[in-house]
Amino acid sequence: MIRLKAIIKKEFIHIRRDPRSLVIIFVLPLVMIFIFGHVLSFDLKKIETLIIDLDRSLFSRELASRFASAPLYSIYFLDRPSISRKQIFKDESIIREKTGERGAEVAEKWLRQGKIKQYLVIPPDFSRKLSSNQPAQVAVVIDGSDANVANRIYQYNERIFRHFFFRASRLRPAFEPEIKMFFNPEIASTPFIIPGLVAALMLMISAMLTSLSLTREKETGSIDLLFISPLRSQEIIIGKTIPYLIVALLVSLGIILFARFLFHVQIRGSLLLLFLSSLIYLIVGLSLGILISVVASSQKVAMLIALLGTILPSIFLSGFIFPLESLSPILRAFSYFIPATYFLRILRGIVLKGASLPHFLFEALILVLMSFFLLGAASRKFQSLRRAKT
Predict the structure, then answer these.
(1) pLDDT per residue as tens digits for the range 173-184
(2) Domain ranges of the chain
(3) What is the pTM of this model?
(4) Which of 131, 251, 349, 363 is within CB 3.0–4.6 Å of 355 for a Cys-Cys bond?
């Protein structure tokens, strides 16, 4: 313990002598979560929708009013195939030029130009079929150039159609479903994205912290003093990890508080479980950084490997943005070796669902095994370098 205390004290002195890097380590993740938290969003602010009402009945107007009353929709009408009732553009001459064309052709042109995201065509026999309990169809054409946007529009439309067909006046359905959204009733993307950002940033920062520790010793030549010291390799690796673990915990606390108060992400689960799981996850990241530090020849190389080896896989291959089921079998197999894949399930379970330890015990055990494996690999690699030098 005396030798371990000495190496820990030495690392704290290194940290204190480099205040600029410390400021960057604390400020960089806050800036990144602020930018990505506002930029990365699957929420739609406005869905420009053109409604072509060929029925002009009570039912068709009621359906149109349900779309118009939804806050996400910006509704425009074509009551007859060639005459506009509500101006869609500021320049009225654009509409007047279309008076000789059919409404569907006008709608398709606006869809191609990106001026609307979808259009609906209510057929002339809409109310008659509803009144006689016959299947009534509404044609919906959505701009599918952006698959995520189109999928969200489809989901929003489906909710309105379900609500209309089961609650429209004079309709007597055999059953009426009651639909509830657990954990995210508004279907907002912020509660989904922010935990993913937190997981990616925690791994990146923890790996960057320790990836520079041994490479700094290599560049200054002081690593030879460690080689000839009575310290065992395991003591050097652990001693270099503990100080950065404290720093990483403070940085992670700042990231979580920033996400909590800036983006209003509610933490529904246990704070103690969140702390313990974060501690295990940070040890994995620090261990990965130590292994990179042992292998890399310079601080620049170590930082580049730490960035590319943590932030990119954590964003694209951990289930942060894309579901793991949508990945190819090779990439899905690779995702099982990414620590963020497991911590993201834990973090979303605690923050969004209020899950307890039995719900993610397997993921926690995987992270513990990863930390032991990475620390052991770093110790063995350091021992081999030590023998080669001495």
Answers:
(1) 444 445 555 666
(2) 18-41+192-389, 47-167
(3) 0.74
(4) 349
